[in-house]
Design brief:
The structure holds two protein chains of two kinds. Chain A is mainly alpha-helical. Chain A is built from six helices and two strands. By secondary structure, chain B is mainly alpha-helical. The radius of gyration of chain B is 17 Å and the shape is globular. Classes of the chains: A mainly alpha, B mainly alpha.
Amino acid sequence: MKGRFVPFLLGVVFALGLGISGMTDPRKIIAFLNVAGAWDPSLAFVMIGAVAVHFGFAQWALRAKKPAWAPAFFLATKTTIGAPLVTGAAIFGLGWGAAGYCPGPAVVAASGGSVPALLFLGSMLAGIAVFRWIGVPSRRPGSSRLVRSS
Amino acid sequence: MGRVPMAFTVVASLVGGALIGASASALLVLNGRVAGISGMLGGLVRPERGEWSWRLAFVGGLAVGGALLAWLRPELVPSVSPGVPWPLIVVAGLLVGFGTQLGNGCTSGHGVCGISRLSVRSLAATLIFMLTGALSAYAVQRLFGAST
């Protein structure tokens, strides 16, 4: 119950946050990223707002023994800035700037009935599947490399 | 809130960002999980034991949230793409899907959660995808953009 219903509610809150902040409108994303155009710096404030709230809790979590309802924290343990990180981030950015969707807003806007977002979501899931099922076997665990800390 | 989305929306963006941060904080403090959307999707596309149901629940919440937005504030989830032709949208989706898995995160996992944990790795990833995102947005809008 706690393990499913609460994440569900938090997903709803996360989606509302993405919508209210402007992240689900690809025009705003592109107007933010394309600094050479009619630049709209609004989305910088999304990150400022999110990090301002999350920072304290994240610092607390780094020190706490365990979360309230789980046996341990599941945090990323990698610290190296290697070729996979650099290449992956660069490839992600190219797609993000081209279409104006990153993964969360793609799910939200597609569920809200946006046709371009639906198209994007379908091919994004295909891109994820290519990596997870076919691509670079040695790296397949991907973000599930979130390992129990503490 | 119902203003034209193209306007400079500092307050709405701060409030929305705070909601994102609050959601990520509760998920970490209560369930011990990181609110990285690309990681969740990756773990749904290739399921892992014990880590499937919470991810499905959260992504299901995102979908319900999207439907709520479409009902209450449809202008926040517009069915538009600024001049981007559909084959390019498909290519962009493939790049985002593959790139986030290779780079272990996206705007949420690296940009919000990682930076909040003071992860240098996440900061590096964020700077890189912002830079290539800027280049890509510029090039695509230069080629296909409806407006200047």
